[in-house]
Fold this sequence. Notes:
Layout: H1 3-8, H2 24-41, E1 55-60, H3 66-77, E2 81-86, H4 98-106, E3 112-117, H5 122-127, E4 133-139, H6 145-158, E5 166-170, H7 177-188, E6 192-196, E7 212-214, H8 217-223, E8 226-229, H9 247-254, H10 258-263, E9 268-270, H11 283-287, H12 293-311
Parallel strand pairs: 1-2, 1-3, 3-4, 5-6, 5-8, 6-7, 8-9
Helix pairs in contact: 2-6, 2-12, 3-12, 6-7, 6-12
The structure holds N-carbamoyl-L-aspartate (NCD).
Amino acid sequence: MPDQQLIDYNFNQKHLLGLFNYSADDIRFVLEQAKTFREVLDRPVPKVPTLRDKTIVNLFYENSTRTRLSFELAQKRMGADVVNFSAGTSSTRKGESLKDTIRNISSMKIDMVVVRHESPGVPHFLTRCVDAAIINAGDGAHEHPTQALLDMFTMQQIYPDLKGKKIAIIGDISHSRVVRSNIVGLIKLGAEVTICGPKSLMPAFVETLGVNVSYHLEETLAWCDVAMALRIQMERMGAVTDQFPSLREYHELFGIKMAHLEKYPDFTIMHPGPINRGVELESDVADSNRAVILNQVTNGLAVRMAVLYLLSGGTRI
Ligand code: NCD
């Protein structure tokens, strides 16, 4: 989208349920707004009071460190009133249904809900229960759109135009919501995607995803501009040994090591976190200057500020 069209763009989304529902231009527009918020974060006082009159609830039914802190900090930096709900310490424990919980919360006049849940489709379900704007912070193994947006933002800091860029996503593909949102978004922006991992961690119907599939780490690293490693999602599988013989063997075959960085000097390493050091990445790789993992975290704040701003009715910052 040329600059002038970007200025005139009519962003027309009420929710962020997944990147599946966003057009390429919607994605470009969000990423463009995020640049402004990224600049705000570098100011001595990194605050913009654009959500001063908004109330937001963070509804987390599943564990989270980065995503939850990032949303909360983004909301506070923008002056919103924030309430946090954790399933572990709430009336969910007393048997209250999700629908009753959200209706009660909604009676408190909430403008936006950020939700993470282990069941795919929960954010979509909430749009039918309440009026508030819903933001998906991860629904089961389905989508994690703000993670993919921050990943694409980070890639664009290195490659402003992602068209034709070669992105490898390596690891537990079948249980990852991060990979699903990234595939959808990256393809919309014209990137070429290869997924790589053991056959037992590839989803069924992998050939319908519109990506290249590789079972060889070396050939994938030789090919790519960016290598994004994913954690083995143990919480979404039975015994790890049902999927592959051992974590040690997994690391041998699919872990990115310092030797790979020396052999292939050009690719950048990304990881959504949390990292399992010594499994998907050799520890020194995670700390090396080829990794942009902590940039991803900072960029996540800017991207979430942009999403919150646009879904609260802001047009452009
Ligand atoms: C990811 C998630 O929750 O899906 N993490 C995150 O949001 N930072 C990936 C993961 O848990 O491995």
